[in-house]
Amino acid sequence: MLAYAELTAFLKLAEDAALLAPTLNDRAALGDVAATEYGHFRVLRDKLSSLGVDPEEAMDPFVDAIDAWHAQTRPKDWHEALVKAYVGTGIAGDFYREAARHAEESIRRLVDDVLTDEGRSEFAVERVRAAIEADPRLSGRLALWARRMVGEALSQGQRLAAARPDLATMLVGEEGEDLAEIGRLFARLTEEHGRRMAAVGLSASG
Amino acid sequence: MLAYAELTAFLKLAEDAALLAPTLNDRAALGDVAATEYGHFRVLRDKLSSLGVDPEEAMDPFVDAIDAWHAQTRPKDWHEALVKAYVGTGIAGDFYREAARHAEESIRRLVDDVLTDEGRSEFAVERVRAAIEADPRLSGRLALWARRMVGEALSQGQRLAAARPDLATMLVGEEGEDLAEIGRLFARLTEEHGRRMAAVGLSASG
């Protein structure tokens, strides 16, 4: 799931960079985030292959949910693209870290390595903060946009967890069937999201 | 010029991978080529910055020609995308190598390093060959497609060389103003293209 998420993040960020960046330096900066995601994908694909798993087969069950999320969260302008790069990859990262908590040590370390932020959030945070300072009216619209992205992420996550009990077990351990436990996990994800929103100068409550 | 070409190649290849790859493994393989181009861009951008040049300003004069080439060579299907990845990056590489021949040693080495193929042409060659074996009618269409890409590349190159005598001088040395010399350079590019076409199982004459 993380492999397909990284491959898709790479392609979507590249698309946003090509279509929405106002300057070549901005295009290069978001391109940098995209290329980093590809590097993460490569690590995960190689790990799958080394386990004797075909990456395509392994990714296939998660294609619909991740594609649906991107279809629902297509940024309309450069600021939405920046907020998506920061908030979207942030909440996705928290989700995969939670999923890896119950995995074996070597997988947990791999996931942590792949999700290392490498300073890319700084790029988006600085630009969004500056844009809001220059035009405070942006703040409400971008806060709503971030809320919607998180809502769509939780909705896709819930759909997957309902359809795949094995994934639910992975997320919350032996209490996998306990929907309340899934609810608490989602609450933790929402809290972390609130911290990121504050960092970028947006109110999580919209 | 090479920096903008690499940045754009990265974004266009990512787009082709997202839109045209028939399987996830194919998408990942073309994504790999795209991410490699980004790595090349990063090297060139850092070199420009280290020379005290703003990358955006340095790339700006070449945006129109390179964008026009991509607008004229948008692949319609996966096989066209593969041929573009192989033939398009091939002829572009020859062009930049020629341009670097008259540059100082350190720049020449940098360009050679950036243009190292890293085995990515093998991926496209194998798949195109296999596709033509399976359906020999593909051969004529793809040969025409490759011809058109090269024609567009030479046409954009000629436009640039006419508009920028400094670039022409860089390409053919002191005889920069000699259009015949430019013609001979383009003949060399076309010969190299013929060799690539043969490698992929296509006839350069269409």
UniProtKB/TrEMBL annotation, chains A, B:
Pfam name, any one: MiaE_2
Concerning CDD domains, the annotation shows: Ferritin_like
Q: Which range is the signal sequence, renumbered to this chain? A: none
List each copy of the Ferritin-like domain by range: 1-174
Record protein name field: Ferritin-like domain-containing protein
